[in-house]
């Protein structure tokens, strides 16, 4: 590949990556039932701020027609603010020596396909891991209202997950998808839960179905980490539709740089990207969480403020079991 073609090569990698991500987003959304929604609709600035009216169900009351007509306190028509935070990521640099990569020179499309596919899968993995980490942290911060803790060092069973679903009471049917790691998934399969048609797979993310309920299988670190101890926990994240929304604006910026000064010419490719992250029923705390958060800040539960009146209107629940 001539050095003069690098700009064209760079543009093709960027376009192919964006297209690959869009295809993965469509497949994942359809397969997961929209519990974790990967949106190609981006937003400007550090935050996406949206307001909605809070629930007025508490205004309902019983009336005694024969009692004195005394004053009645009013229920305020109030708005709650939902904050989505923008997160920045990078890929690379990827380094190679143009003179040694004859396969690139013979067929640049092969290199474009290789780089764009790996970059798209890495970006999707980052989005999902960040989304899961945020959701788990936000729910654990609320405690037992949305977390079912087995209080034992045992593998999570479907009965445990069902007990977590019960946290939503009469609205448990809204929980449409369970997110778990590969070990927990295979433990359930070992317990004769064998109805597992595969719906979608990309990289290390698999979407299957167990007894009619969708299950996202991915070894996200947050599903095995403990926020309070040095050991590990086992966690299953159960989500409602739209429980987590990831906004990918397609603002991928790539750059190819060829440098001299060594025995051989070296070329590197580097990329920057951003995505927004929001949780149903929670708002990113702009004051404590701040702009462009780190992984640790994303996974800090106190940075996600519950804004929904009832937990039944939030993103979901967590099943928790400690390991040995």
How is the secondary structure organized here?
Blueprint: H1 6-32, E1 36-39, E2 47-53, E3 79-96, H2 102-106, H3 108-142, E4 147-149, H4 158-165, E5 175-180, H5 182-190, E6 200-202, E7 205-210, E8 213-218, E9 233-240, E10 244-248, E11 253-259, E12 266-279, E13 282-284, H6 286-289, H7 295-298, E14 304-306, E15 316-322
Parallel strand pairs: 1-10, 4-15, 5-8
Antiparallel strand pairs: 2-3, 3-12, 5-9, 6-7, 7-8, 9-15, 10-12, 11-12, 13-14
Helix pairs in contact: 1-3
Protein traits:
324 residues; alpha+beta; seven-stranded mixed beta sheet; six-stranded mixed beta sheet; 7 helices; 28% helix; globular
Report the β-strand fraction as a percent range. 25-35%
Helicity, as a percent range: 25-40%
Number of domains: 1
The tally of beta strands, per DSSP, is: 15
Report the biggest beta sheet as strand number plus sense, adding barrel if it closes: 7 strands, mixed
Order of helices and strands, N to C?
Answer: HEEEHHEHEHEEEEEEEEHHEE
Let me know the average pLDDT. Answer: 78
Backbone structural class: alpha+beta
- Number of helices in the DSSP assignment: 7
Shape: globular
Termini separation comes to 55 Å
Strand neighbour order, sheet with most strands: 4-15-9-5-8-7-6
């Amino acid at each position: 590949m001539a050095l003069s073609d690098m700009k064209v090569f760079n543009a093709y990698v960027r376009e192919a990556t964006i297209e690959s991500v869009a295809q993965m987003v469509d497949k994942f959304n359809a397969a997961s039932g929209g519990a974790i929604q990967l949106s190609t609709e981006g937003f400007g600035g550090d935050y996406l701020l949206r307001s909605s009216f809070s629930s007025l169900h508490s205004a309902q009351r019983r009336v005694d027609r024969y009692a004195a007509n005394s004053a009645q306190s009013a229920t305020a028509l109030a708005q709650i603010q939902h904050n989505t935070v923008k997160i920045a990521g990078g890929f690379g640099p990827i380094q190679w020596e143009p003179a040694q990569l004859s396969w690139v020179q013979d067929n640049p499309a092969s290199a474009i396909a290789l780089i764009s596919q790996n970059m798209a899968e890495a970006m999707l993995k980052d989005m999902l891991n960040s989304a899961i980490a945020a959701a788990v942290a936000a729910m654990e911060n609320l405690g037992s209202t949305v977390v079912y803790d087995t209080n034992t060092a045992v593998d999570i069973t479907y009965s445990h997950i069902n007990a977590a679903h019960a946290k939503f009471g009469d609205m448990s049917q809204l929980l449409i998808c369970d997110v778990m790691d590969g070990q927990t998934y295979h433990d359930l399969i070992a317990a004769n839960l064998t109805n597992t048609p595969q719906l979608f797979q990309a990289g290390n993310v698999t979407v299957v179905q167990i007894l009619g309920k969708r299950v996202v299988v991915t070894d996200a670190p947050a599903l095995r980490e403990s926020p309070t101890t040095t050991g590990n926990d086992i966690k299953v994240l159960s989500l409602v539709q739209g429980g987590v929304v990831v906004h990918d604006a397609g603002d991928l910026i790539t750059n190819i740089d060829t440098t001299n000064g060594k025995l051989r010419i070296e070329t590197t490719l580097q990329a920057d990207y951003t995505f927004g992250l929001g949780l149903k029923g929670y708002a990113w705390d702009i004051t404590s969480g701040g702009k462009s958060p780190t992984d640790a800040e994303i996974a800090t539960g106190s940075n996600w403020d519950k804004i929904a009146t009832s937990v039944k209107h939030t993103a979901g629940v967590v099943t928790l079991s400690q390991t040995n």
